[in-house]
Amino acid sequence: MRSHIFSFILAIALALPFASVSPIANATVYVYVAPDGSKLITDKKVRKKGYKLKRSYKTKPYRSGTRNAPYHARTIKSQYDALIVNMALKYDLEPSFVKAVIHVESAFDPNAVSRAGAMGLMQLMPGTASNYQLKQDHFNPNRNVEAGVQHLKDLMERYGKDKKLSLAAYNAGEGAVSKYRGIPPYEETQNYVVKVLKLYKLYKKEI
DSSP secondary structure string, 134-159? Predict the structure, then answer.
């Protein structure tokens, strides 16, 4: 398998004070340049003196509880496949498993933002991301996928490589899995586990 080297340079400070995203309307993300030259990315307009709007864009909120979402039904050739394979192998996880998680989490949209504030390809909450040294640049595919894969790897180790429990914890949190001593009785989480495992089996035939 050909190896790929992914490199990037962080030249500016980046802050991400995201608020909850409406479950109906698209979110508008604003990119500002601060007086000191750093960047601020937020879903709120900034009216502070010295902040200049560089650009803005819309991103659809991801709703994991949505049934019959068309992207759940088939595999997808993603532009991030090489990144996914290399990060998965780096942390000793199956690329097909990692890709299935990203497929369900964000449908391969690097700018995806959930209603709860989870961000990027692997839909990481700010607190979880910071545990893996991702405190800025949350939408950078390389950094987001690496942090998410590390988190998934830790869950797999915690639950003895049990994919169902690891996925349940990824979706609902480790506290919920401990509380219910298994997959929590949340419809969203139960559907999530089923969708990821179904796609995992499909991607195993391709990767």
Answer: -SS-TT-HHHHHHHHHHHHHHHHHHT
**Token pair 């010295």 is at which residue?**
50
Instruction: Tell me if residue 105 is catalytic.
Output: yes
Answer yes or no: do 32 and 116 share one domain. Answer: no
Burial 168-207 (b: 16+ CB within 10 A, else e): bbbbbebebbeeeeebbeeeebbbbbebbbebbebbeeeb
> Would you give per-residue pLDDT tens digits along the chain (207 residues)?
333 322 222 222 223 333 333 332 345 667 788 898 877 766 678 888 899 998 886 655 444 444 444 456 789 888 899 999 999 999 999 999 999 999 999 999 998 888 888 999 999 999 999 999 998 889 999 999 999 999 999 999 999 999 999 999 999 999 999 999 999 999 999 999 999 999 999 999 988
- 18 and 114 both lie in a single domain: no
Q: Specify the pTM.
A: 0.69
Domain residues for the domain of 48 are: 14-59
Q: Give me the catalytic one of 105, 146, 157, 187.
A: 105
